[in-house]
Amino acid sequence: MRNEATVLHADLDAFYASVEQRDAPALRGRPVIVGGGVVLAASYEAKARGVRTAMGGRQARELCPDAVVVPPRMEAYSAASRDVFDIFRDTTPLVEGLSIDEAFLEVGGLRRIAGSPEQVAVRLRERVRAEVGLAISVGVARTKFLAKVASAVSKPDGLLVVEPDGEQAFLLPLPVERLWGVGAVTASKLHRLGITTVGQLAELEAATAEQLLGKAVGAHLHALARLRDPRPVDTTRRRGSIGSQRALGSRPRSPDELDLFLTQIVDRLARRLRDGDRVCRTVVLRLRYGDFVKATRSHTMGTPTDRTAVLLAVARGLLAAALPEIAERGITLIGISLSHLGRVDALQPELPIDWNEGARLDTVLDAVRDRFGAASVGRAAQLGRDAGVSTPLLPEHE
C-alpha cells in the first residue's frame, strides 16, 4: 500500500453544460439544461435550483423555468474530451479513464522532474482551463477511492489534497452517500439503520456490514469506510493515439515561433513513442485559429516510424500548408497527434535496412535525457529561439 498521496482524480465540472457555455458566451452565468425529455447534464446555475442529471425534462423546467434547454452535441463533447485526455497523457503515461469526463492519474514518479503531486495537479488544472476552456476539479490522495471523493468535495473548479495523516479526519464525517457504490437504495437502507456518516459505517464489524447489506456490497463498502482500497491506477488499455498541444494566447505568432513549438512537441512525442516501443503511421496537426475555430490537417506515411526527423518533416509540411490561413485568421493553439500506433517489434523491416544518423541521434538524445533530465539537451534548431511564452511545455517524464 502506497504511503503518499500520489493518485489524482480529475473530473470535468458539469461537462456537457460547460462545453455549451464555453462555445456560446451568451449562456455563461445562466442555468443551462442539456437534453429535453431527460436531463443529460445541468450547469451549476441549474443545479442550484434543484435540477439533476437523469431528471425528467418537465420536472426540471418546473424547478427552473428560466433555464435554457439545448440539444446535446455529442461530437463537441467527444472533441473536448479528447483534448482533455491529451493533456492527461501529456502529464503522465499512467492514466486510467473512467468516462468521457474523468480519469485517474498516477503521478508518484514525477517528483524529481515535475514537482509534488499537488504542483502537478495545479498545472494540470491550469492547462485544461487555458487549452480547452473548461474547469476541472482534482482530488489528490493515497488511493483511488479517496482521490475520487476529494475531487467531488472540491467541486466546482477546485483542488483538494488529502494527505495520509488526514484521511480519517477527512472521510469519516462525510455522509455515506460519498462512498463509491452507495446509491439511493443502499443509502436509504443505511439511513433506516441509523447510519448516516462514513464513520458510523466504519464502526461496524465487517460481518455486521455484510449481514446488513449483503456479502459483496457490505464487504466493499466497509473496506472503503476503513480506508482500504488497494487498487492501482489501471493503464492496461492501450491508446490508439498520443498527442500534445500548446495554448499560444492571442498575440500574433511568426512562422519561426510556430516552428519552435512544433519542434518541441514532435521531439517529445517521438520520445514517448520510443519509450513505449511503438511506432505511428499518421501525423495530425491540430490548430485553433484566432476566432477559436478548430482545424486539423493530417498525413499518413507508407511505413510506420518512431524517428523524430521523419515525424518533424511531416509536421512541418502540414504547418507550411496551413500558414496562409494562420496569417489571415491568427492562431491560439497548436498541437500534434500521432495515430495508427503499432508495436515496433511487429514491423517487418525493409531491405536494405537503413541505419541512418537520425536513428542514432534519437537514441543518444533519449539516453542523455533519461540520465540528466528532459531539459538537459535540445536540438540545435531551438538554440537562441525564444517563443516568448511564460509557461513552457511540461517536461517529458516516464
Automatic annotation (TrEMBL):
The keyword RNA-binding does not apply. Pfam families: IMS, IMS_C, IMS_HHH_1. PROSITE patterns: UMUC. Its EC number is 2.7.7.7. It catalyses: DNA(n) + a 2'-deoxyribonucleoside 5'-triphosphate = DNA(n+1) + diphosphate. GO terms for molecular function: DNA-directed DNA polymerase activity. Its main location: cytoplasm. Gene3D superfamilies: 3.30.70.270, 3.40.1170.60, 5' to 3' exonuclease, C-terminal subdomain (1.10.150.20), DNA polymerase, Y-family, little finger domain (3.30.1490.100). Keywords: Cytoplasm, DNA damage, DNA repair, DNA replication, DNA-binding, DNA-directed DNA polymerase, Magnesium, Metal-binding, Mutator protein, Nucleotidyltransferase, Transferase. Residues 233-253 are annotated as: Disordered. The keyword Nuclease does not apply. The record marks 16 as: Substrate discrimination. Mg(2+) binds at residues 11, 101. Its cofactor is Mg(2+). The active site is at 102. It comes from the Bacteria. SUPFAM superfamilies: DNA/RNA polymerases, Lesion bypass DNA polymerase (Y-family), little finger domain. Residues 7-183 form the UmuC domain. Binds 2 magnesium ions per subunit. Monomer. Belongs to the DNA polymerase type-Y family. PANTHER family: DNA POLYMERASE KAPPA, DNA REPAIR POLYMERASE UMUC / TRANSFERASE FAMILY MEMBER. Poorly processive, error-prone DNA polymerase involved in untargeted mutagenesis. Copies undamaged DNA at stalled replication forks, which arise in vivo from mismatched or misaligned primer ends. These misaligned primers can be extended by PolIV. Exhibits no 3'-5' exonuclease (proofreading) activity. May be involved in translesional synthesis, in conjunction with the beta clamp from PolIII. This is DNA polymerase IV. It comes from Herbiconiux daphne. The lineage of its organism: Bacteria, Bacillati, Actinomycetota, Actinomycetes, Micrococcales.
